[in-house]
Model the fold of this input.
Amino acid sequence: MHNVTVAFAVLLVMLLSYFFGCFNGSFMVSHFIIRDDVRKHGSGNAGLTNAYRTMGAKKTLFVLLGDIAKGAAAVSVGWALGGPVGKLTAGIFVILGHMFPLYFGFKGGKGVLVGAVMLAFFDWRVFVIAFALFILSVVLTKWISLGSILGAVSFPITTWLFYRDPVLTAMAFGMAAAVIFISDVSCTARKINSLLRAKRRSKHRLTERRSNMKVFVLGTGGWGIALAMLLHQNGHEVTSWTYLQEECDLLHRERCNEKLLPGVVIPEGIEITTDMSGAAKADLVVLAVPSFAVASTAERLAKIVPPHTVIVNVGKGLDSKHGYCRFSETISNAMNGSNPVVALTGPTHAEEVARGIPTAIVAASESRAAAELTQAAFMNDTNFRVYTSSDIIGCELGGAFKNIIALGAGISDGLGLGDNSKAAFMTRGLTEIARLGIKLGAKQETFAGLSGVGDLIVTCCSMHSRNRRAGILIGRGATVEEAMKEVGATVEGYYATEAGYHLAQQQGVSMPITEAMYGVLYGGLSAKDGIRMLLARPRKGEHEEVWLG
Done:
């Protein structure tokens, strides 16, 4: 009878703890407070990290408290019903519930925080040792996954040292395995495997695959055509896609786009089509559509392109329809995370690339292999140099926000304010871009590179820049609508301003120039009043440091 009671108690602890774990604070806060679903944004994960990136610090605090509360509740119930064994049982199953919630299709968070709460309630000594190993590892290696692994590995070891109980130790090992093998090791193994494969194959790709790839380019605007020509020059089999049949017919007939690339002839070897199905056979898919079409095009691609095909996005902006996220996040979510995404960005004008003028650019991705494949496809020894970067966050934000700053720089030129004003505009603009970028996890040095200051210079100072030209017209007195119409092509900074303003507000980051541009473009503020608003801000230090003494 006693054994039956114990078995029932253990079973009850398992069930209650699992359902405690299924309570997802990230989803609840996003659903009831911001009326959205956190899983539609960022990494698509319903965990704490994605909640922070999507909703900001204040709302994520409620998520944090919810995760702590459910872990504490589960362990408390386990202790009451089953003592130390019940504690550990509860810990294992609350983590499993968090990671594999029944009502979310068994797709939840990683369970690291919930596991930490369980450790703290189980034995503070065990928790302190695990936490110390985690912090030490992260400080030394900058690798959070490795810190989580070491902390989890220490759990069964310290349990044995403190309790000398084989049952508790075995259960501690099981809990550690739930965190390590289901969450962190799989993630870490993918990273390590990706690095090893990239190292083994990089030479092969650079030498053998550079001139024989099938590349499908979506978009026949100036940038799409220029890149298609570059890829063709590099010896690849290139297909360019447009959704407009009349544009397809025109390009077939004329082999040029005089409006966007005057005097540039499209080689006969580049196929032009309205049929997207050809992307299924491509080694590389290049997305060169306007910012407002990125999400819808990616959703169509997801039904065609097989897993693991690299998607290269060359557009610069933010997705305002899905929580003001970066385009790589939008594309990855549309592809269900099955395709590596690369951002190809930097100081480039389509007009110059199409004419073979020497250019340098950055291929940024979380996947080193994908970045190097993109580098191999686009780079040549005569006119196009490609660098790789792991900081896709910084590279994408630099590319999106420089268009906002370029609109403002154009307004400065249109008002006749001079070089002093524009220099101040550009440098302070770069400062606020970096401020937001670092908040979202970007590397500071990225903003001093090609996708930061490089792209800012070329966009703010050249008449090739549609954003600058639109800004000049607004500064001279044209309405926003009149300026957009006269430029005659997509002014990406207009769309980026709306998304960038709301993203900054969401993250609680001060971006005065972006705010002023939002007022001019969307709030009826005059160009002169926008400048006055910036000049009238409170006094402050350039680097915002704290002075001592």
About this structure: The two ends are 74 Å apart (CA to CA). Residues 182-210, 545-549 have pLDDT under 50 and may be disordered.
